[in-house]
Amino acid sequence: MNKFGFTLLILFATSLFAQNVNLNDSKMNYGEPIQFLNTRSLGMGGTGIADGTNVSDFLLNPALGVLNQTELSVSAKGHFNKYQEDRSFPYYDSFGGFVDYGSYVFNENWYNNFSGTVNYVLPSDLIPDFPKISVALAINPFLDFNYDYVEEVRTTSFSDAILAYNKIQSDGTLQEISFNAAAKVLDELALGMRIGMITGEIEQSSKINPIDNGLENIRLNETNKINLESNPIKLNFGLYYQANEFLSLGSRISLPYTLKFQHDGLMETVDTSATYLEIQNIDYPLSLGFGLNYRFTNVLLARLNFDFEYTFWSDITDNLNPDLRFEDTYRIMVGIEHIFMDKVPFRLGFNYEPLRENNSITKTVLTAGTGIVFDNFTLELSGGISSLTYNQFDMYDNAIYGLASRGENALDRVETDSFFGSIELNYFIDF
After folding, report:
1. Residue 200: how many CB atoms within 10 A of its CB?
2. Taking a C-beta distance cutoff of 8 angstroms, is the pair 44, 302 a contact?
3. Residue 280 burial by CB count (10 A; 0-12/13-18/19+): exposed, middle or buried?
4. Residue 418 CB coordination number (10 Å)
5. 27 phi and psi, to 5 degrees?
6. d(CA 425, CA 376)
7. 316, 295 in Cβ contact below 8 A?
8. CA distances (Å), 254 to each of 208, 287, 289, in order?
9. What percent of the chain is modeled with pLDDT above 70?
10. CA–CA dist 363, 352 (Å, integer)
11. For the whole model, what pTM was predicted?
């Protein structure tokens, strides 16, 4: 049998047209950027480039670190995501007419990660030329490669016996360890820079595990350990401008960076075992973000955020997949927050984005959040939901198991549902 697992995933990622995408393969090969970097931002649709209310908002815009009202602030966040995937295939009557879709795979998995930040505002007399300066340290998830897939292969006869299990697993989230510096160069203008070091590793496996003894010859077990050859540096710059007491503007730029991976693979079949070593260089693109924050009058203690982000995904390159074609994308994010009399916030958000794999398909996320305010700390809670439907080729050809093939052009319907949740504790200290 030819090499099947991750080589297959890379080849599949190039087959993008119409409403056909291979999002699982794309995520396992290139990661899915973490969009909601703090809990308050999640509750407001991912917005916050021009806000600066939360301790860890400098992750959204490096210039916002200087807006903290206390000398020292610390945050710790837990984030979880439930991902459901339902795959169904089209079936036809005896005359070749389409009848309906029949579900054959349903997977539900939970994923989680953690992050933490520390932000310190320097004494005002330390550097007299600047009204205010802050420095911060952070560790946060950066690219998510997690994906799990289990498929039961059954006979088409009345017995419906299990022939084999197909399993794909990808475990790993790259982390960014960063240093942030921000300064008010004027009373209404702040600039910032964040230098991040990328770290982490990924483990992947692809298996065909036959149950029927007559299919023992198709047994396959491929594992792949993916390590960064070095810890690349990622640079972010930000600007914040407060036009007046009601309106502020912000912008950020995330520069291109390169991840160099070493793949240590092992492929085992019934009668063979082989190792392979590959070096993968992926050049990730430039990203630009712009934000607006409007604060209403005291009659209605509320604020409105509007953010726009553009990522030049068409510039991504991969030496192992020279035919890779992504498309530039934009994100539109809207969030609103109202503060009740007892300082309890209520937040709603909306996030809209075409897919980089095929920008004719769009993803929408609806979010909500709240929090509790105490004397020197706050507890933030947020959640979001998203659904997506797309088409994808059958991941495993039925002919492998001696079943009738569904044809080269047979497309599965894939329906996914995601639930995001986040909890964050912020602590403030004045010396």
Report:
1. 18
2. no
3. middle
4. 17
5. -65, -40
6. 11
7. no
8. 41, 5, 8
9. 91
10. 6
11. 0.89
Closest CA to 421 of 52, 36, 155, 17: 36
240-279 as b/e: b if 16+ CB within 10 A: bbbeeeeebebbbebeebebebebebebebeeeeeeeeee
Detail the DSSP E strand segments found in 172-232. Answer: 173-186, 189-199, 201-210, 220-228
Instruction: Look at residues 27, 84, 168, 80 and name the one whose alpha carbon lies nearest to residue 416.
Output: 84
CA distance 176 to 178: 6
What the chain holds in terms of domains, given with CATH numbers, is 5-429 (2.40.160.60)
Task: Kindly provide the residue ranges of all beta strands, DSSP E only, lying in 319-431, ordered along the sequence.
Answer: 329-339, 345-354, 362-373, 377-393, 411-429
Is the pLDDT at 13 greater than 60? The verdict is no
Six-digit token pair at 378?
């706050």
Work out the angle between the directed axes of helices 23-30 and 5-12 (0-180°, nearest 10). Answer: 110
Pairwise CA distance, residues 288 & 331, whole Å? 10
Distances in Å between the alpha carbon of 52 and those of 64, 105, 249?
5, 44, 11
Query: What number is the average pLDDT over the span 259-287?
Result: 94
Surface-to-core class of residue 56, CB atoms within 10 Å of its CB (0-12 exposed, 13-18 middle, 19+ buried): buried
Q: Which amino acid is at 347?
A: R
316 φ/ψ angles, rounded to the nearest 5 degrees:
-65, 140
Give the DSSP per-residue string, 109-138: EEEEEEEEEEEEEPPTTTSTTSSEEEEEEE
Structure tokens belonging to residue 341? 């009399």
Q: CA-to-CA distance for 325 and 315, rounded, in angstroms?
A: 9
Residue 198 has pLDDT above 70, yes or no: yes
Alpha-carbon separation of residue 302 from 104, 294, 323 (angstroms) = 47, 9, 48
Strands 287-295 and 162-171: unpaired
Tokens of 234: 């990622």
Dihedral class, residue 46 (left if φ above 0, else alpha if ψ from -120 to 50, else beta):
left
Cβ atoms of residues 319 and 329 within 8 Å: no
**Residue owning tokens 């916030």:** 345
